Amino acid sequence: MADDPYEIRILNFQQLGERVADWATGEKPRPARIKDLIALLDVAFDDGGLRNVMALGAGFHEADKQDENISYLRATPSESISVLLPHPEDLAKDPPTEDEYELPDFYNRVYNSEPNIVNSKNFRSERIADYAMRKCV
Predict the structure, then answer these.
(1) What confidence tens digit (pLDDT) does each residue in 95-131 have?
(2) For FRET with 118, which of 37, 50, 103, 134 sits at 20 to 30 Å CA-CA?
(3) Are 45 and 38 in contact (CB under 8 A)?
(4) Segments of the chain scoring below 50 in pLDDT
């Protein structure tokens, strides 16, 4: 994984989306703590796990992080407004450069084109607006 010890790498967007939907509807139990999520990384997807679906940076595997609770934020119904605010620490970091920005491969497949990020600061603001306000469901 990259230099960020708290990176969350999504390996299979479709399966992770399906699993998050299962958690949202209560079809599958949500992991309560980081160690519960880490345990799911060793369980096959068809058995309720996340093996080969996502990976967590080394920082999440440290003993002092294991018992931390996972925060789940439920969006409001579509006729209401909810805003997912980025953490200030994330905003204090410089946005990745155009070459460093990683967009999921499914964007290329769906839009049949490669990303063309002209200004990474503007692009980060556009992504924040999309994810914070439109709920991306």
Answers:
(1) 888 778 778 888 888 888 888 888 888 988 988 888 8
(2) 134
(3) no
(4) none
Can you tell me which residue has the tokens 């469901």? 137
pLDDT for 2 equals 55
Looking up tokens 């369980």 gives 43
Helix (H, G, I), strand (E, B) or coil at 8: strand
Distances, alpha carbon 113 to alpha carbons 11, 86, 88, 104, in Å = 20, 28, 32, 12
In the numeric block, the tokens 């999504």 are attached to 10
CA 8, chain centre distance (Å): 7
Full 3-state SS string of 9-30 = EECCHHHHHHHHHHHHHCCCCC
**Burial zone of 50 (CB within 10 Å; 0-12 exposed, 13-18 middle, 19+ buried):** buried
HEC profile for 52-72? CCEEECHHHHCHHHCCCECCC
